[in-house]
Design a protein that fits this description.
Helices cover about 35% and strands about 30% of the residues. The chain contains three helices and five strands. The strands form two sheets. It has a three-stranded antiparallel β-sheet with strand order 1-2-3, with no helix packed on it. A two-stranded antiparallel ribbon has the order 4-5.
């Protein structure tokens, strides 16, 4: 694995049920437990899923035309059962509309293929969820600079 392929996020507590995630580029994102306006971890997963495919769709279609409407929604049902807590019935819905011209027609025509490419190959988040990639949970001290 090269440094270009490595991804990491650092998190520290900023209040009761509130945390701040920081990426290697200095971006920050507040995360909450649901008692505040911050995104919960489950909402972040949904945002990551819909955001990943949205980036793919935008990248592919904007080569033909710029969407005049670009909206998307991710949803799921929180399940608590003997198997543990999880989200099920994940659904991503994309509403992209393009100009009523030749370029818009080209963007609309490529949209189903672009969605399939994102789902089946391009979107790292969706592919990770679909593959059921397990996380390695550990306790230990973080070394200075591990977030890079």
């Amino acid at each position: 694995m090269t440094q270009d392929n490595h991804r990491s996020v650092r998190l520290h507590k900023i209040g009761e049920g509130r945390y701040l995630a920081t990426n290697a580029r200095g971006g920050v994102l507040p995360i909450g437990s649901g008692a505040d306006p911050d995104f919960t971890p489950s909402e972040l997963l949904l945002a990551a899923l819909v955001g990943c495919t949205s980036i793919d769709l935008d990248f592919i279609t904007r080569k033909r035309a710029t969407a005049v409407v670009f909206e998307a929604e991710a949803s799921g049902e929180k399940v608590r059962d003997d198997g543990g807590n999880r989200l099920s019935d994940l659904r991503l819905v994309f509403d992209l509309r393009f100009p009523d011209d030749e370029a818009g027609d080209a963007a609309r025509a490529i949209l189903p293929r672009a969605l399939a490419q994102s789902r089946e190959r391009l979107c790292t988040v969706g592919r990770t969820v679909a593959a059921g990639e397990a996380a390695d949970y550990r306790l230990g001290e973080l070394a200075a600079g591990d977030a890079d």
